[in-house]
Write the structure tokens for this entry.
Amino acid sequence: MTEERITEHTDQDGHTHTTHTIVTDGERSKSGGTTILLLIVALIAVVAAIYLFSNMSNAEVAKDNAVENAANQVGDAANQAGDAIENAANRVAPSE
């Protein structure tokens, strides 16, 4: 329990002096347990954020690779179509 005592004293000249005294019954101050717990939670949050951002960049790389592969397949299909048209043209009008 905490108690505040205010003492007023008037000297011979008429000046009043006030003294504030706080008396406690020996309450313990809080330990650093809360601080340590908050630091651990903050550390976990930082590690989770790094993990999530790392995975997001990996997802971007995977998406870029998928787009590149699709573009390569379209290019290959276009080459095959060109070859097929050339073969068909050679059958219709063989070159001499």
Q: What stands out?
A: The chain is about 60% helix and 20% strand.
